[in-house]
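Journal club prep — side note

Before the paper discussion, L.F. wants everyone to see what a predicted structure for a comparable chain looks like in token form. Sequence:
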Amino acid sequence: SHLQLFTSPSSGTSLRIMRFSNGPTLSFHVESFVLREDIIANQRRPPNLDHAVWDVAPIVVLNNFNLAQNRPEVQLMEATFQSLFPSINIQLIKTNDIQRVAFFHYDPDSNTVEARHYYISAKAVGLSKTVKKLMEGRLPTKLGTLENLDEILDKEGAWSDTDGEGEEVPLNQPFRGAKDQARIKLVEIGPRMTLRLVKIENGFAGGEVIYHGHLEKALWQVRDNASKVRARKAEKLKRRAEQDSNVAKKRERVQEKIDRRKQRRTEAENGQ
């Protein structure tokens, strides 16, 4: 439904989000960004993401876009970010299909949007540390200190523990091996961006400028610009109609020539 285009001119990286097929087009300046590979590289224990993580659209979380003092363009940003992802029916989706979160936070003071992408990590609680590691398919980090396999369930110190992070939440239905309660943690998987809205156009990759972050126009200038855009659009449609008409006439002439050749061929055959 949307086309996202990144460009990197001398003035800095920019992002255009264009909605098929009639717009609008939102242009952003990318204030800062961090690639997914760089975020994962700085994590002590990055999550192991399989194909199932990407099969279902993420949950979209929008924050601070509905403040009373926000301008109309902020509401349009909210609708655009929301429509970038397929809608999810919360009543029908299975909890095990909920894998990721796309988070957008609007800062009214700096007039920027923080974009983050998280993986939802879930671990069972109420179990010993050893059993939890076994459920995750992980091996002891100090396996060489054990004399036999029975000690795996006895020596908790054989495991490195990072399970203290996250928040315990009750579950209405099983979620990734946990039945009644799980420790939920959001793990950033990137990319990470800080965006500043520069311009909004009411068409696809063009059209009337209905918002500009750097230019303030008087009402008569807005109306004059709108009339010029409409005039250009009308002229474009007129030229397109003329081209279509010329193409249709050319096809008719070609078909007439073909029909005349067929007729002469038929008359010649009848004359013989």
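L.F.'s comment for the group: Residues 156-164 have pLDDT under 50 and may be disordered. Keep this in mind when we get to the figures.
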